[in-house]
Amino acid sequence: MASAAALSPDRILRDLANVWVTLGKQGQPETGMGVLRACSLNLVVVAEETDEFQALGETLAALMPEHPARTIVIRYGAAPQPELSARVFAQCWMPFGQRRQICCEQIEIAASEKALDDALSLAGAVTAADLPVIAWCRSPRLMDRDGFRKLAGLARRVIVDTAPFSHAKASLARLAELVGQGLSLGDLSWTRISRWRGMIAQTFENRERLARVPGEVRIRVRFGGKEAPATARYLGAWIAESLKAAGIQVTLTLSSDASAAQGELSGAELDGAGLRVELSSGNGRLRVKMEDGLEHCASHPPATDYLLMREELGIVGRDPVFERTLRAAAAL
After folding, report:
1. According to the model, what pLDDT value does residue 2 have?
2. Alpha carbon of 113 to those of 83, 98, 107, 139: distances in Å?
3. Three-state DSSP class for 180?
4. 3-state class (DSSP) for residue 275
5. Which H helix or E strand runs over 223?
6. What SS3 class is residue 308?
7. What is the mean predicted confidence (pLDDT) over 65-92?
8. Least confident segment among 29-33, 132-136, 287-291
9. How far apart are CA 127 and CA 307, in angstroms?
């Protein structure tokens, strides 16, 4: 590793330029076998050295065809001295039926924990100009550091994942506080319930059923474990806030489900006079059952980092529905 002072933005940018020179020499323009450089945004990823970097690399490679980016991965650990090192390379793929490679840039920065602020400053200096910066914070510990503020200052939007956090309620309260201070945030726990929200919204698209919704509705959201995870809090808050906006009084209960795995969102029910909607998950499918016996289901594949980030990278601005639900979920 080099000292923090020895690694400069100019050096990294020169190394990137050399990557493209090398790739250009490998192409054969006369046969159509050239290289196309693609970049629509900057993606800054911050992770601890204990993270599964092979899995992370596979996720980033899978994201690039849909969201080509200059990706800057910061991996920090507990080395005693403030040290930094970096390497650059290209992520390339060849679309089906074509002979030309499409390539994106990737910069990997390894930093000791004491040099994390320097690494974040370095990342900000090597982002592609005039393109949005999205930050993916994979380290729960980083939210309690000054470095999180620096990361948020670099990015148009910061994506976190409250699932690994030990206390969901406190984590959501912290996120709500940061949103209130003007930060634009996203949470992969919110993204995990996209299919759940879609199924419920689809259920009430039927005008006849919507007209039969009573003035008071009881909501119960079920989960595995003793403490309600962020997904259960988000889902309950979203249903409750949606019904309140329609002038309906609600009672919300978050209920532990002994048959569900720890932290799993297992189901939800809406009950009222003449209303019964039950949503359950199992065997890779979501099922909705109504009071009239009508039932429909949809595929619900495991929520991998790739699927979650693919959805989140399509949002480059603030998400008012998420922010409103976050405040309500933090208050439960």
Report:
1. 43
2. 9, 44, 18, 12
3. helix
4. strand
5. strand 216-223
6. helix
7. 89
8. 29-33
9. 24
pLDDT at 176 over 70: yes
pLDDT bucket at 33, cuts 50 / 70 / 90: low
Q: Read off the amino acid at residue 163.
A: A
- CA-CA-CA-CA torsion for 83, 56, 135, 40, nearest 10 degrees? 110
Based on the number of CB atoms within 10 Å of its own CB, is 220 exposed (0-12), middle (13-18) or buried (19 or more)?
middle
DSSP string, 226-259: SS--HHHHHHHHHHHHHHHHTT-EEEEEEEE-TT
**What is the tens place of the pLDDT at every residue in 111-125?**
988 888 889 999 999
Contact 72, 107 (CB under 8 A): yes
Q: What are the structure tokens assigned to 146, written together? A: 């000054």
- pLDDT > 60? residue 3: no
Task: Name which of 138, 163, 139 is nearest 263 in CA terms.
Answer: 163
**How many Å apart are CA 288 and CA 8, to the nearest integer?**
56
Overall pTM > 0.85: yes
Q: Domain ranges in the chain? A: 2-155, 194-299
Give the separation between CA 62 and CA 12, rounded to whole angstroms: 24
Record the tokens describing residue 276, joined without a space. 């019964």
